[in-house]
């Protein structure tokens, strides 16, 4: 999100690439290589026209699953349950926060805007009655309630979500034209007239997506009707706008409006929503991506990830390879050329450097949390098309390092920026006075940790992530239970429950970080096979009740350089990014939490970094292999620097709270460069 007062900028300032027509790029990208990697069913339905024909035949010819064969679709969250571990703990802290938010306060601005009485105390921050983004969090809240219900079965949150939907429906009815928002329609006049307004379609997207989630996970027909009303209003509004004018309008952040409308068209089988979705598309942005050109420099990061998730959805619904290229190339470029060691991306909310160069991009404002959330969302799409374990390497990296540690364990408050410059600390929102974009994506993320731990195709289950949990596969009469204290435990224990013996494959991800010595035992006997790092180990057999797999995935210490600057490195153990502990000197509570009164702060004001992280080693090889680190005996995942003037302790970045830290270390291999 454009971060309000701090980072507000418009993309009107950015030089967009010269427009190239969509069709030119379709022909450009349809090389035989590109075709070869497409699932077989995709080609037959290439192009929007075929999809349109199918839709016009009526009914629901396609369904949400679309036209693309999914090689590894995530299991529905309803079939997955977390067991004791850090993800369940984090889920519980998030649920506690969701339970603490009152319905009447969440719908207050909507009621006022619809001319209905409300005596509730308004919320603050980006939900304050004078904030142009008001209403966005109520949408996120609906998504979070729906996802939490699917993930944990929390009926109270389902009921709470339904109560919000019922109130929103009243507000929508009062307006009478489908419009539903906490701010007046005149905001859209300002948008149309280029008069400056924060992000009205972005906000509507959150509200529509929230209602869609309430339908999808809680079967709320009322929520679907609300979403359809909003989509009809959007269709009507955009109908009056020319293509050129629409392109100017789309320079203002609009979130994943295209994705939500594609989802709605898939759910309802109604072509008109699909057509409205296509109005929220920028050929000037997608064109270079489809042509495999990185022209992302200068763009606002979190504005531009959800658009690509919409492209991924359009590919799934139509099989059109253009959108496949957009999504896959974008994923590749961001994760390989524009991501930190944590998997996160953006600095000061933007991509302001050339590809592959983050040497000047470590700051207090690194890595907006929303970006990690949206990259995980995109990764789920590209992974399910291919079952390529590389996507899950990135997913694991980002989930454990960029997401898990961005919630305060005591109260469920989330972060906005994730500072990666040495000497800063984590800063969290307040209960009722922040409601940042990242509060919104945060409450969603921490409601859906059951997502994508496991995937499946017709015959096989994929164990993507090592998280204590259980997945039920009723079609197979099979349950797979994972007990692990990963990453403290370097591996996982899998138990099969089966009513009767069942033939299936279990694919266990062997991560790219796995060190030598990995093994797998079946019922206590070592199997004579393993798989190389960065692959799935597939074990097929007739599984019987009680079958056990014991998987050992040895971890090792290593470093990774910052993109564009090999003298700065981060340390990892397995997939876990380590943070140097720099102490809590001068850190007050006020410096760690947004105040619950007054204007919201996205980061601590006047924040000053303290402490340094310098490493001297004899050789580049010593730096690369993290020879300057040693494990601390008796303390899992804890390390200390060795051979330096002062020893610094390191623990997982996702476990550091209330303390200054270092992720990247400045290295030198000459004694005179060593820091004192
Ligand atoms: Zn955000």
What overall geometry do the principal axes of the alpha carbons give? Answer: globular
Name the helicity range: 25-40%
Terminal-residue CA separation: 40 Å
- The number of domains is 3
CATH topology of the largest domain: Glycosyltransferase
| Strands, count | 23
CATH architecture of the largest domain: Alpha/alpha barrel
Task: Give the uncertain stretches in residue-range form.
Answer: 4-51, 53-64
SS-based structural class?
A: alpha+beta
The CATH class assignment of the largest domain is Mainly Alpha
What is the makeup of the main sheet? 9 strands, mixed
Outline the structure in words.
By secondary structure, the chain is of the alpha+beta class. It has three domains: 17-293 and 301-327 and 431-445, Glycosyltransferase; 454-552, Immunoglobulin-like (Sandwich), CATH 2.60.40; 557-673, no CATH class. The protein has 22 helices and 23 strands. Strands 15, 16, 17, 18, 19, 20, 21, 22 and 23 form a nine-stranded mixed beta sheet that branches. Strands 2-7-8-9-14-11-12 form a seven-stranded antiparallel beta sheet, with no helix packed on it. Helix 7 (103-113) runs parallel beside helix 9 (155-175), helix 17 (301-318) runs antiparallel to helix 18 and helix 19 crosses helix 21 (437-445). The model is unreliable at 4-51 and 53-64 (pLDDT under 50). Bound molecules: zinc ion. Zinc ion (ZN) is lined by residues 1, 302, 368-370, 416, 436-438.
